Amino acid sequence: MQEKLYFYYTNDLHSNFDQWPRVAGFMKDSISSRKARGEEYWLVDIGDHMDRVHPISEAFMGKANVQLMNDLNYDIATIGNNEGITLSHDDLFHLYDDAEFDVVCTNIDTTDNGNPLWLKRSVKTTSVSGVKVGFIGLTAPFNDYYHLLEWHVSPIFEILDNYVSILKQQTDIIILLSHLGISEDQAIARRYKEIDLIIGGHTHHLLRTGEAVNNTLITAAGKHCSFVGEAILTWDHSLKKLVKKEAYATEITNYPKDLATAQSVQLLQDAADRSLGYTIVHADRPIEVKWFQHTKIMQELTNTLRRFTNTDIAMLNSGLLLDQLPAGNITYQDVHRICPHPINPVTVDLSGSELMEVIRASFTKEFMELKLKGFGFRGEVLGRMIFSGIQVDTDYHKNGEEFVKRVSLPNGKPLEANEIYKVATADTFTFGRLLPEIARSESKKYILPEFLRDLLAETLRKNFL
């Protein structure tokens, strides 16, 4: 006798709630089919369901996401970096208090007074016919952030060595819910033949029909739930082993919306509007935002960052602010709308020569017009860099491109090539190759849980009355 076990999954929704009613419609239809046939199924999420870029997640600190997952009767979820490092310690500690599903994250612990009750190391379940399935969950180890929030994420292979061995003795099938990324998933599959299925996320990769690595099937469904995933494992009861593994990612961008879920999302949006609608300041005139020009609001925000971090110099890109602010009452909802990024302040130590390279790079056309996607940035283009604590004088080449002529300190003296300066900026620039001198710095100090929009609210209160 052979039996098919079905696993439906979502990953990296990032609070794209416009798509969620379609997810609900697909899941309800699929589960209805499974129930009609008496087939076993599980509904799982791989993390980054929440993203504070959306006002619903901002207003409820992720608890509305949990409510929506409860409504669809999810069985198991793991946490992503957006749940893990964009919430304060207490908000994450209590995020899943009302979850009606299991939360499994095998490699995270608090560093203070014990783990929350919802946090499980592994989850074991048994089908009606007696097939034992074990789940492990892993999240990406951003410990530079986690440690500041009183959490610790343990090394991946150290955890897997222990728990794979345990589950191999206790279950028939091992499934890893991995918010690690495709490269790590492939490395795990090469090392642990005991893992039957890896359902992945984090790097937003799409595997339409899965990828087989040794004995393991890897699958993932991209980002924003444009696709929903399904894995099918066929168990042979006579042979007592899996005889087939399948994975499919189905595009649902045109799938009919579940109307009850759409109504729930709208009610949450209405509640979020009320929650975030309190006034920050009353402005007598509109506040201009321009991505490629110097503006008062960006200068004052950069000044606020320098004071907040007590650094020599601060620098922020104008593309952080997405829209103008009208005259009249400016609410926190307005602040969130124009600065939705989950971006934290960071400080780094740079030599004068390194700082000059950063400044020169930031004035290139390629940098200012870069349409960045990722690293916490949710805007359109990076825009012009604004500085506090130094004076940057520029000129233009004959071809119209701007270049840096001179950089001077408040006393009029130039930067010293070998002098070390403490610089504050957006943590976006500590990743990738946008500004290599910042990314390579060994003195990064992230400041949590404050986002740049918290500093924007403070800037408006103090400078735009």
UniProtKB/TrEMBL annotation:
Keyword annotations: Hydrolase, Nucleotide-binding, Signal
One Pfam family cited in the UniProt record for this chain: 5_nucleotid_C
Segments forming domain Calcineurin-like phosphoesterase: 8-205
BP term (GO), one: nucleotide catabolic process
SUPFAM superfamilies, alphabetized: 5'-nucleotidase (syn. UDP-sugar hydrolase), C-terminal domain, Metallo-dependent phosphatases
Domain 5'-Nucleotidase C-terminal as annotated: residue spans: 286-428
Molecular function, one GO term: nucleotide binding
Annotated CDD domains: MPP_UshA_N_like
Protein's name according to its UniProt entry: Bifunctional metallophosphatase/5'-nucleotidase
Organism: Oceanobacillus halophilus
